[in-house]
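Example record used in the benchmark description.
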Amino acid sequence: MLKTVQTPFSHKYYKSLETFSTPPMNISHKNNKSFKKFSTPPMNISHKYYKSLKIQHATYEHLLQILQVAQEIQHATYEHLPQIIQVVQEIQHATYEHLQQILQVAQEIQHATYEHLPQILQVVQEFQHATYENLPQIQQVVQEIQHATYEHLPQILQVVQEIQHATYEHLTNTTSHSRNSARHL
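Model output (structure tokens):
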């Protein structure tokens, strides 16, 4: 009688064939899940797209309103353009009419200035002459002021020094008094 002995090799071989021929359940489940991911986008992406479409539509509606307002403004401006042009022409005409008067007044001022120019020059010359004639007196007064200031300079300096000394003493007394009062606290 022959005995069949199973070798560990054949068992391993059988196991490997079984593993190779049928993939385990978890692998196919993973494949199925990954396939679902690719076939349908997640809800939040489509929701964002929908929201962006709503925003685009609202922007489009507001854009139409803005354009309508701009067209109404242009139309109103076009309707009032003849009136605006008429007002500008009236202003130009009035300015032209008054320009003649303005030029006439300017010419009269120039003529009067030209007529009185000799008198104006005479007054200027008299002022210069009087200043020149009185220049020695003006210089004498300036020198007397300088001399008096120079004579009284020692007295002025003494008064300034006394003020500085009194300020220093008062400052010293105030500082020492504040120190003493701080010590008592």
